[in-house]
Automatic annotation (TrEMBL):
Official protein name in the record: YdhG-like domain-containing protein
Lineage top rank: taxon: Bacteria
Alphabetical list of Pfam families matching this protein: DUF1801, OmdA
InterPro entries, sorted: YdeI_bac, YdhG-like
All residue ranges annotated as the YdhG-like domain in the record: 24-113
Lineage, opening ranks: Bacteria, Pseudomonadati, Bacteroidota, Flavobacteriia, Flavobacteriales
Length: 198
């Protein structure tokens, strides 16, 4: 199904918030936003960049502002879309059509468009480097076999940490040795400990 068909179906579908989202769509289109369909929602863009999406749920409908964290929010209506997970996205919820003030909604959308055109973005947070603690058993194999050490260092930090923990968590020396024997060919083949489950 074409994106345009999905959009039309989304707005035509019988839903308690059908009139509400029709109003929001009309405002967005008057602001010359490009209309597309992403993540199961009509999404509105400027210069190919996501600005907002219009969404409907069981208890409310609303607007997702992809970089809403930068909106001035003079009406104090924006909520973090997913507290603790979402950094930039903000959500404006509506439960009744009379809550949709066309002038105010238009002002928020216009500000969001302006921010996108200025390139205002939230810089991604740099992940803290992964600390890989290597057990003495692995270090001993490195000392004996330089090729094994080289193969291990080509693995991602995450894979290295998994292998290190796998050996370190074995309580008995016998278990550590058997685990080491098991993982050496995997490491030499460039595989992670749990790759077969991915």
């Amino acid at each position: 199904m074409e994106k345009s068909e999905k959009i039309e179906r989304y707005y035509a579908e019988e839903h308690p918030f059908k009139p509400h989202i029709a109003i929001l769509r009309e405002i967005a289109l008057k602001l010359n936003l490009e209309e597309t369909y992403k993540w199961n929602f009509p999404t509105y863009m400027v210069n190919g960049k996501n600005v907002l999406a219009i969404c409907k749920f069981n208890q409310h409908c609303g607007i997702w502002f992809f970089n809403g964290v930068f909106l001035s929010d003079s009406e104090k209506v924006l909520e973090n879309a997913q507290e603790g997970k979402t950094q930039a996205m903000r959500h404006w919820k509506f439960k009744a059509t009379d809550e949709i003030n066309i002038k105010k909604v238009s002002a928020y959308m216009t500000e969001a468009i302006g921010n996108e055109q200025k390139g205002i973005k939230l810089a991604p947070k740099k992940k803290a480097p992964v600390t890989v603690v290597l057990p003495k058993e692995l270090k001993e194999v490195f000392r004996q076999d330089k090729n094994f050490k080289k193969a291990f260092t080509t693995l991602s930090d995450y894979q290295q940490r998994e292998y290190g923990e796998y050996i370190a968590t074995a309580k008995q020396e016998k278990t550590k040795r058997s685990r080491l024997e098991k993982i050496i060919p995997m490491i030499m083949a460039g595989k992670g400990l749990n790759d077969k489950y991915k």
